[in-house]
């Protein structure tokens, strides 16, 4: 037998997460409908295995209860806690909770004389192995980013491990965070929040750069538009109105634009959207707009913000084949 029925069915998680990783890279958005079918499958498989092992009087039955308990009572709440503390996005938390329900026990697959996964753990909680593999893979990402910057000649020790230079013109079409402020290298505005502002105002980055004085004056903001959620996959670049020409916006500009109470209408933007837009603030939005309007550089540092579902998919593939990277490392070091 290649594997038990439940373990074979659990392999469906691989193509689903492959699609999720691809979509997360391109849109940074995952539909909520993705997770309930996997959770329902996980519950069904747990019931299947529980019926086979009931009343859990054997060592195998008791070990099954420990595995399920750790996965559901530790790994699943951990996903929620990471989201609540701001370390995870909502989709990342749902993905981890889903894996906790679907993958509590170590699967076993036999391919001829080969048995996978190769490296198991004493605890035997597969969702924990997927999580540790994912964290180790994610930890390598800054190193790879720095190597890529080094090869391309982009050397800045404060930024090269976390960001990369991108064309200023391409910023409206990118995900991540601006890694510069008017004061220098630092974590700046989430680019989704910048898109929300431009769509709300019915303008574009090129219009802001062509006539910043008119855009600073909040009295020039008349009709506003749906800011959407800031995703690049929603509508055209502006997605909120017809872009003003430089001549039109200049005619509307005020001589007192630089001394208005609400430069760039940032306060009004946040009041109308009833939120912070990915943790941003009016001050942070103004700083970013000032930087983008004043810069004469062709590139700025932008942190790509690797979606956690991407290393999670890689961690899944490694977990199903090799097994637990951390325990493999410990074994190589002679610690186990």
Your description of this structure?
A hairpin with a 2-residue loop joins strand 5 and strand 6. The chain folds into 2 domains: 164 residues, Four Helix Bundle (Hemerythrin (Met), subunit A); 140 residues, no CATH class. About 7% of the residues have low confidence. 35% of the residues are buried. It has a 3-stranded antiparallel sheet. It is elongated and about 75 Å long. The protein has 14 helices and 7 strands. With 336 residues, the protein is mostly helical.
Computed over alpha carbons, the radius of gyration is 25 Å
**Major sheet characteristics:** 3 strands, antiparallel
In what order do the strands lie side by side in the largest sheet? 3-7-4
Number of strands: 7
- Could you tell me how far the N terminus lies from the C terminus, measured between alpha carbons in angstroms? 30 Å
Report strand %.
Answer: 5-15%
* Helical residue percent band: 40-55%
The CATH topology of the largest domain turns out to be Four Helix Bundle (Hemerythrin (Met), subunit A)
Low-confidence stretches: 236-259
Provide mean pLDDT, rounded.
Answer: 90
Give the oligomer, counting copies of the same chain as homo and different chains as hetero. Answer: single chain
Could you outline the blueprint of secondary structure elements for this entry?
Layout: H1 5-10, H2 13-27, H3 35-53, H4 59-84, H5 90-102, E1 109-111, E2 114-116, H6 126-151, E3 164-167, E4 177-178, E5 180-181, E6 184-185, H7 191-201, H8 205-210, H9 212-216, H10 246-252, H11 266-273, H12 282-294, E7 299-303, H13 309-321, H14 325-332
Antiparallel strand pairs: 1-2, 3-7, 4-7, 5-6
């Amino acid at each position: 037998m290649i594997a038990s029925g439940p373990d074979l069915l659990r392999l469906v998680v691989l193509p689903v997460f492959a699609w999720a990783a691809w979509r997360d890279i391109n849109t940074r958005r995952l539909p909520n409908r993705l997770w309930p079918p996997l959770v329902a499958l996980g519950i069904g498989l747990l019931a299947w295995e529980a019926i086979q092992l009931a009343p859990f009087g054997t060592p195998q039955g008791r070990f099954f209860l420990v595995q399920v308990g750790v996965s559901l009572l530790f790994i699943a709440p951990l996903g929620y806690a990471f989201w609540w503390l701001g370390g995870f996005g909502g989709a990342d938390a749902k993905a981890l909770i889903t894996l906790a329900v679907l993958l509590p026990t170590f699967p076993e697959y036999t391919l001829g004389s080969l048995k996978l996964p190769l490296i198991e753990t004493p605890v035997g909680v597969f969702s924990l192995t997927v999580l540790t593999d994912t964290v180790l893979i994610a930890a390598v990402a800054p190193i790879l980013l720095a190597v890529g910057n080094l090869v391309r000649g982009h050397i800045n020790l404060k930024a090269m491990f976390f960001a990369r230079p991108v064309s200023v013109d391409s910023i409206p079409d990118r995900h991540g965070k601006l890694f510069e402020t008017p004061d220098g290298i630092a974590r700046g505005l989430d680019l989704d929040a910048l898109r929300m502002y431009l769509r709300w105002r019915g303008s574009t980055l090129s219009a802001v750069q062509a006539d910043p004085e008119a855009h600073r004056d909040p009295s020039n903001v008349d009709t506003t538009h749906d800011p959407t959620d800031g995703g690049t996959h929603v509508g055209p670049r502006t997605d909120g109105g017809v872009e003003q020409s430089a001549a039109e916006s200049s005619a509307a500009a005020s001589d007192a634009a630089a001394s208005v109470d609400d430069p760039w209408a940032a306060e009004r933007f946040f009041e109308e959207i009833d939120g912070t837009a990915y943790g941003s603030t009016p001050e942070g939005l103004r700083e970013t707009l000032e930087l983008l309007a004043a810069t004469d550089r062709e590139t700025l540092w932008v942190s790509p913000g690797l979606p956690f579902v991407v290393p999670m998919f890689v961690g899944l593939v490694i977990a199903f084949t090799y097994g637990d990277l951390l325990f493999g490392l410990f074994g190589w070091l002679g610690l186990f």
